[in-house]
């Protein structure tokens, strides 16, 4: 109603208006021009909390206007009364009312007034609390939806990052009207790490405790622990009651209460979204439930990011794998081509450094003496240590760890590392490194090290990726070792074949009865060739405390026939004392003459092996090394195989010497017996027969005439005695020709030639006497040969040649007979062959059919040929 007339007022007084007031749904308050209440209906009682009797006569300002608005109300009411301000009549004005309990609430006011006097003002008042609440809810919902749209846009446009999580936190703080919001992620160790934050000025200091990157444990009762245990929402209404690190940090940050809801990504608990109130304020109930809409978007962002990251990582990994496989193929191809181990190692180092994108790759081989040797490395940004340098496997560092455990090791901080490897790494400026074991055929061979001097550590997958290269490297090393072992085996087989061939050659010499001197020289030369040493010599121990050089190969002062004193600290003395192989590596203190000879020959070391003959140390064989040709390993064993042959040759020579001497003694004894028989026959029976024959002749001459028969018988006896004397003389000559003893070999051969039935051309070019044994042997050979020619050869002539050459008597007898002679069938020369060989000589018979027979004899002319 716009105006109340006087009639209306009268109706009110009479009860008509009163009925209206009673029935009105809105609160109706009527006031006079002074602002005092003249009417207050039941609806107004219910709205403001006053009874009608309490308000009548009192001013509107003190009853239903908040204190803060009373002054403005009083001025506005006075102006309205004064001016009438018709523009306010009938309009709905939103104001703030006050209840009897002092609480304020929004109201809507519609004014009207009476016409005439006195002026009465009527106000219809409606409570807008529910309407305002609904409007606020709609506005909040709109704001929340707008915030969610902004977050969704961020999720669609940006990856999950600190910026995204912090933007979400700010939107949540704005929508929920809270001073603090954080987004945290659970780590594998249960710690909660802040990924995004938003703090209003009320909690500006909280960033120091709960800012991005900060970590907090899941203390019992904390939001982190509740969400982690239940995967549901969580609430803490008073952090001051929370015991532990989180409670202390929350109080220091100024938190009073907090609530959280889980962030679940792909079915797994990823983290949580937390909101906080400041000191003196508790978060409203069900605040945590309002977080879910934001959480779903955050989870979507994380899921999308992880999917994109996984796809990008997959693509990157595929590219890495392709590059890695290409590198592995290149290395495998190089290994398959049987390249040298050094080439393979360097190739692996270079390819691994390129594929793994590290500054350097190094490879170290573990040695038996607890050291590691650098055998290969890639190009490096620093001055690298030289190949071949060794490091002691000591201290706390990744190389020592791999050697100790056999497992990969990583070191991103070298400040606490110790040992020589750590000192090298520190000197090169290495900050992060990974070492992986190289296992070859089940044995720890060494390690491959990837290193960088950048501040960022090597990627977490470096250990896993480097394994592919170490496995290929192990295969290459195993193949190289197999090839080296095969080559070494083939080389050993060749060496053994050469050695066996040399042993066979020496054994053949020994079997053929070659002279010891020839065997000693041959052995020295064979050993020098087989063992590849510059000097080899054979020595014999003498009874006077010296040793004699018997055979030498190589240039040195040790010549055949030289004698050397046996020094106790020398090789000869050590072998003679111990009876075992010996080695001497230092001749600096060795005195003359052995030391001087060794120095002149530039010998730095010697190895000697005893020669044992019939259980006694007979001598030794020695090999000498020079700076450019050291003594090979295993020389002692290889020398021993040759010394066995030398011992056999010496033993055989000794036995042959003893046999020859024995045969010579037998022959000499026979010759002596022949001479005694010949002398006894000549001086005894022959002389008596000659005397008897002379006596018979004398008797024959004294027989008188007329006794012719007796004279004839005596003369016959004398002739027979003379024949017997001649036969005895021939027998004596056969036993041992007197002319040989008296005139020597030359007259004896002339006598044989004169008596020969076949003409003999004699050519004797040596007239001097020779040892008896030599002359007797030559004489009997010539006699037997001429007898055989006369009996079997059917020859017309014989040529006999005798001369002295190279300290040997040379006898040659040739005929022009039928040939075909075979001494083995018993020609009488077999016994003569034994006689000649007993003197160290030789007999050679050539008798081709139809071409005559040639007999050659060589007998050494030495002092002991006489054999007594």
What does this protein structure show overall?
The structure is a single chain. The chain is an alpha+beta fold. The protein is built from 25 helices and 29 strands. A hairpin with a 4-residue loop joins β19 (535-541) and β20. α1 packs across α2 (16-23) and α23 (745-755) runs parallel beside α24 (772-793). It starts with a strand and ends in an 8-residue tail after the last strand.
Brief overview:
Helices cover 48% and strands 22% of the residues.
Major β-sheet, in short?
A: 6 strands, mixed
Report how far apart the termini are: 183 Å
Shape: rod-shaped
The helix fraction, in percent, is 40-55%
Strand content: 15-25%
Cα-based radius of gyration, to the nearest Å = 68 Å
Question: What's the tally of helices?
Answer: 25
Structural class: alpha+beta
Number of strands: 29
Question: Low-confidence runs (pLDDT<50, min 5 residues)?
Answer: 1-14, 863-868
Mean pLDDT: 79
Secondary structure: elements and pairs:
Blueprint: E1 3-4, H1 6-14, H2 16-23, E2 27-32, E3 37-40, H3 42-48, H4 52-55, H5 60-64, H6 67-83, E4 92-98, E5 104-114, E6 120-127, H7 129-157, H8 162-176, E7 180-186, E8 192-199, H9 207-210, E9 215-216, H10 223-230, E10 234-236, H11 245-253, E11 255-265, E12 268-278, H12 292-336, H13 341-356, E13 360-366, E14 371-377, E15 390-392, H14 398-405, E16 409-411, H15 420-428, E17 432-440, E18 443-452, H16 462-511, H17 516-531, E19 535-541, E20 546-553, E21 563-565, H18 571-578, E22 582-584, H19 594-600, E23 605-613, E24 616-625, H20 635-702, H21 708-735, H22 738-743, H23 745-755, E25 760-764, H24 772-793, E26 798-805, E27 808-815, H25 829-838, E28 842-846, E29 854-860
Parallel strand pairs: 1-5, 25-26
Antiparallel strand pairs: 2-3, 2-6, 4-5, 5-6, 7-8, 7-12, 8-9, 10-11, 11-12, 13-14, 13-18, 14-15, 16-17, 17-18, 19-20, 19-24, 20-21, 22-23, 23-24, 26-27, 27-29, 28-29
Helix pairs in contact: 1-2, 7-8, 7-12, 12-13, 12-16, 13-16, 16-17, 16-20, 17-20, 20-21, 20-25, 23-24, 24-25
């Amino acid at each position: 109603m716009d105006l109340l007339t006087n009639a209306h007022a009268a109706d009110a007084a009479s009860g008509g208006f009163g009925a209206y007031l009673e029935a009105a749904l809105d609160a109706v308050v009527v006031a006079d021009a002074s602002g005092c209440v003249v009417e207050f209906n039941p609806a107004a009682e219910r709205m403001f909390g006053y009874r009608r009797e309490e308000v009548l006569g009192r001013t509107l300002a003190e009853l239903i206007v908040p204190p803060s608005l009373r002054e403005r109300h009083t001025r506005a009411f006075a102006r309205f009364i004064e001016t009438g301000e018709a523009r306010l009549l009938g309009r709905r004005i939103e104001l703030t009312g006050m209840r009897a309990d002092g609480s304020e609430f929004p109201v809507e006011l519609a004014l009207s007034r009476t016409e005439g006097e006195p002026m009465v003002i009527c106000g219809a008042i409606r409570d807008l609390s529910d309407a305002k609440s609904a409007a606020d809810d709609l506005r909040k919902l709109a704001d929340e939806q707008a915030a969610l749209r902004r977050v969704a846009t961020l999720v669609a446009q940006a990856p999950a990052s600190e910026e995204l999580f912090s933007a979400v936190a700010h939107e949540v703080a704005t929508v929920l009207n809270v001073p603090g919001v954080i987004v945290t992620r659970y780590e594998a160790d249960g710690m909660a790490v802040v990924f995004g934050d938003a703090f209003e000025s009320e909690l500006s200091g909280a960033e120091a405790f709960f800012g991005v990157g900060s970590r907090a444990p899941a203390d019992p009762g904390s939001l982190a622990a509740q969400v982690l245990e239940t995967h549901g929402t969580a609430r803490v209404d008073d952090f001051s009651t929370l015991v532990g690190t989180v409670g202390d940090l929350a109080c220091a940050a100024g938190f009073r209460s907090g609530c959280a809801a889980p962030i679940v990504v792909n079915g797994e608990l990823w983290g949580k979204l937390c909101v906080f109130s400041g000191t003196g304020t508790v978060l409203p109930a069900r605040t945590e439930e309002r977080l879910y809409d934001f959480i779903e978007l955050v989870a979507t962002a994380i899921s999308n990011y992880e999917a994109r990251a996984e796809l990008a990582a997959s693509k990157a990994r595929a590219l890495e794998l392709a590059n890695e496989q290409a590198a592995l193929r290149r290395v495998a191809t190089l290994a398959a081509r049987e390249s040298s181990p050094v080439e393979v190692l360097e190739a692996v180092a270079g390819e691994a450094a390129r594929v793994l994108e590290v500054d350097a790759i190094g490879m170290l081989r573990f040695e038996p003496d607890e050291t590691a040797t650098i055998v290969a490395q890639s190009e490096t940004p620093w001055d690298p240590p030289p190949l071949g340098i060794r490091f002691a496997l000591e201290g706390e560092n990744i190389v020592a760890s791999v050697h100790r455990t056999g497992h990969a090791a990583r070191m991103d901080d070298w400040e606490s590392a110790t040992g020589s490897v750590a000192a090298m790494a520190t000197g090169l400026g290495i900050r992060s490194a990974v070492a992986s074991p190289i296992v070859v055929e089940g044995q720890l061979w060494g390690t491959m090290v990837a290193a960088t001097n950048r501040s960022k550590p090597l990627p977490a997958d470096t250990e896993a990726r480097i394994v592919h290269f170490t496995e290929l490297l192990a295969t290459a090393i195993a193949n190289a070792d197999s090839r080296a072992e095969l080559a070494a085996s083939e080389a050993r087989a060749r060496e053994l074949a050469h050695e066996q061939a040399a042993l066979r050659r020496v054994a053949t010499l020994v079997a053929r009865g070659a002279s010891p001197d020839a065997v000693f020289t041959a052995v020295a030369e064979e050993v020098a060739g087989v063992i590849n040493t510059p000097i080899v010599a054979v020595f014999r121990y003498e009874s006077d405390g010296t040793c004699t050089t018997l055979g030498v190969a190589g240039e040195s002062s040790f010549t055949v026939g030289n004698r050397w004193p046996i020094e106790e600290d020398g090789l000869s003395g050590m072998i003679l004392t111990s009876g075992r192989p010996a080695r001497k590596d230092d001749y600096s203190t060795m005195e003359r003459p052995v030391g001087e000879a060794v120095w002149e020959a530039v010998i730095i070391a010697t190895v000697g092996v005893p020669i044992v003959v019939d259980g006694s140390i007979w001598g030794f064989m020695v090999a000498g090394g020079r700076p450019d040709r050291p003594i090979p390993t295993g020389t002692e064993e290889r020398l021993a195989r040759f010394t066995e042959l030398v011992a056999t040759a010496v033993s055989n020579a000794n036995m042959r010497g003893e046999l020859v001497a024995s045969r010579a003694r037998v022959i000499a004894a026979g010759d002596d017996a022949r001479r005694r028989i010949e002398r006894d026959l000549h001086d005894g029976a022959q002389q008596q027969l000659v005397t008897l024959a002379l006596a018979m002749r004398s008797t024959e001459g004294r027989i008188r005439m007329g006794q012719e028969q007796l004279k004839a018988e005596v003369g016959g006896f004398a002739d027979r005695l003379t024949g017997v004397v001649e036969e005895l003389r021939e027998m004596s000559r056969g036993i041992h020709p007197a002319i040989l003893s008296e005139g020597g070999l030359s007259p004896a051969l002339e006598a044989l030639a004169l008596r020969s039935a076949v003409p003999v051309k004699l050519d004797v070019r040596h007239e001097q006497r020779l040892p008896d044994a030599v002359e007797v042997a030559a004489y009997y050979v010539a006699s037997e040969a001429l007898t055989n020619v006369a009996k079997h050869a059917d020859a017309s002539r014989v040529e006999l040649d005798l001369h002295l050459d190279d300290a040997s008597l040379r006898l040659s007898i040739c005929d022009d007979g039928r040939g075909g002679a075979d001494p083995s069938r018993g020609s009488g020369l077999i016994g003569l062959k034994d006689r000649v060989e007993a003197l160290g000589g030789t007999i050679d018979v050539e008798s081709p059919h139809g071409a005559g027979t040639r007999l050659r004899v060589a007998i050494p002319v030495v002092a002991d040929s006489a054999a007594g």
